[in-house]
């Protein structure tokens, strides 16, 4: 009888967690409906029906995203369905986001990740970095953070990079847990999360937020930022963030850098188990190299970044040329596609209904407009506003697609170049460190069960302050030197 008590307690605990999760979801649904109705009836009468419904729909969708009442894909399709049923815009406008090149860039990126994961390349790189960085916990943390940065060049999705790295880190914790204190566990998990967050900073296809920002610039201004241009503007921020994040994690959760007995041997054995690099891996590296080269030379051939991504996805799945099968590469997460398509459409919907102009009024206080005329002060204000806004609108795609058009409108109105302002806001949106729901790497890391939301808060605040300061410092120096910012 006594032997049955523990499993029963575990079962009860699991049931309790599921009940709480369901309760939160129901609260999210009810709250979103209540907020929708309140906005519809309380928004100014002079605002026409289409704009009211668009604003109410957007805020309700944000509530659903935050509470995760449904899957992200379901919420995204609900946005499209609502738009079509209420006829606030035409069906072509409602689905316009799905015809964007950004959609095919993300689809191609996920297909590339599936193909690469079908080879030992990612595992080989992870084991190699961890072996070379030594056996101390501080060096392993540095290795965990750096792995995500290297992956960013050929795996264009933060969620995929974090997902590929997490099992290796969990394996390390399980293998050596008897030698580690709780702070080492926190360090490694935050390394996965924060390392993933900053990994998309300088590589254009490496984060959905980057892709969305470029598409919004194209839609609203008819201009764009190339792969090489994005790398040029963001590289100093990226380089400074890597050691800064490592330092903050170790500072907030201090632990004496200790030897992890056997880690070098374990990584060496894992590498030996993979054998020598094979022909499939060499072919994969060649195709990835060509793809990255095409991305970097966009300013010469003027191909949308989606084209090299699709090229790589197709070639990687060709018989005798590629490394996997077509059946494998098409097994992608459609939730991501639906989120990106719906949020791109949402931006167009808000603009066409006049909702963006109404929302922009809240950011058009005279002191703010006057301050935006000074380039450095504009960057400081945009970074602060974006950080606060992203805490409320946790989904990166939704935050970018609702905030950037407003900033473009203000900048255009006062005759300021909107490009560097949009760039500063989009980079800031990637750096969500405080709340788990701010970024996918945070969610994936916390979902492992090895770290809680509470453990994100203090290091997250410091990381937010640090990333904001770094962005402002780079804007005041590097951006001015290269002529990106006046």
TrEMBL record:
Cited InterPro entries: SLC13A/DASS
Keyword Transmembrane helix annotated: yes
Family statement drawn from the similarity comment of this UniProt entry: Belongs to the SLC13A/DASS transporter (TC 2.A.47) family. NADC subfamily.
Residues spanning the membrane: 23-43, 55-88, 94-113, 153-173, 194-221, 227-249, 282-300, 306-326, 338-359, 371-389, 396-414, 420-444, 456-479
Organism name: Ammoniphilus resinae
Keyword Ribosomal protein: no
Superkingdom of the source species: Bacteria
Predominant place of localization: membrane
Keywords for this protein: Membrane, Symport, Transmembrane, Transmembrane helix, Transport
Protein's UniProt name: Sodium-dependent dicarboxylate transporter SdcS
Lipid bilayer topology: Multi-pass membrane protein
Subcellular location: Membrane
């Amino acid at each position: 009888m006594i032997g049955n008590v523990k499993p029963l307690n575990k079962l009860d605990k699991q049931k309790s967690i599921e009940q709480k999760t369901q309760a939160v979801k129901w609260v999210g649904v009810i709250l979103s409906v209540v907020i929708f109705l309140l906005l519809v009836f309380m928004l100014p009468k002079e605002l026409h029906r289409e704009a009211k419904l668009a604003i109410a729909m957007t805020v309700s969708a944000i509530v659903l995203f935050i509470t995760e009442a449904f899957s992200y894909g379901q919420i995204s399709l609900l946005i499209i369905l609502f738009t079509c049923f209420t006829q606030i815009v035409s069906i072509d406008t409602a689905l316009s986001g799905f015809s964007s090149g950004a959609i095919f860039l993300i689809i191609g990126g996920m297909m590339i990740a599936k193909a690469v994961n079908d080879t030992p390349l990612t595992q080989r790189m992870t084991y190699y970095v961890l072996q070379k960085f030594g056996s101390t916990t501080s060096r392993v943390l540095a290795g965990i953070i750096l792995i995500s940065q290297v992956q960013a060049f050929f795996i264009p999705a933060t969620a995929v990079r974090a997902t590929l790295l997490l099992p290796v880190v969990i394996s390390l914790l399980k293998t050596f847990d008897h030698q580690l204190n709780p702070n080492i566990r926190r360090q490694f998990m935050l390394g996965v999360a924060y390392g993933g967050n900053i990994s998309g900073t300088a590589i254009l296809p490496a984060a959905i937020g980057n892709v969305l920002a470029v598409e919004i610039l194209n839609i609203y201004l008819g201009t764009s930022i190339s792969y090489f241009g994005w790398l040029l503007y963001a590289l100093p921020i990226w380089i400074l963030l890597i050691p800064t994040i490592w330092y903050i994690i170790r500072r907030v959760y201090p632990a004496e850098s200790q030897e992890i007995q056997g880690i070098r041997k374990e990584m060496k054995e894992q590498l030996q188990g993979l054998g020598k690099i094979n022909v499939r891996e060499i072919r994969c590296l060649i195709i990835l190299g060509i793809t990255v080269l095409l991305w970097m030379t966009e300013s010469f051939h003027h191909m949308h970044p989606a084209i090299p991504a699709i090229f790589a996805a197709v070639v990687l799945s060709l018989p005798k040329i590629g490394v996997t099968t077509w059946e494998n590469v098409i097994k992608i997460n459609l939730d991501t596609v639906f989120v990106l398509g719906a949020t791109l459409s949402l931006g167009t919907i808000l603009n066409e209904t006049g909702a963006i102009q109404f929302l922009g009024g809240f950011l058009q206080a005279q002191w703010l407009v006057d301050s935006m005329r000074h380039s450095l002060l504009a960057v400081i204000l945009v970074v602060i506003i974006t950080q606060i806004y992203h805490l409320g609108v946790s989904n990166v795609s939704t935050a970018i697609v609702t905030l950037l058009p407003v900033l473009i409108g203000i900048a255009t109105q006062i005759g300021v170049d909107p490009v560097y302002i949009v760039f500063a806001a989009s980079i800031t949106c990637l750096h969500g460190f405080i709340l788990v729901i701010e970024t996918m790497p945070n969610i994936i890391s916390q979902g492992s069960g090895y770290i809680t939301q509470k453990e994100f808060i203090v290091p997250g605040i410091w990381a937010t302050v640090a990333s904001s300061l770094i962005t402002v410092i780079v804007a005041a120096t590097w951006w001015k030197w290269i002529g990106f910012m006046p």
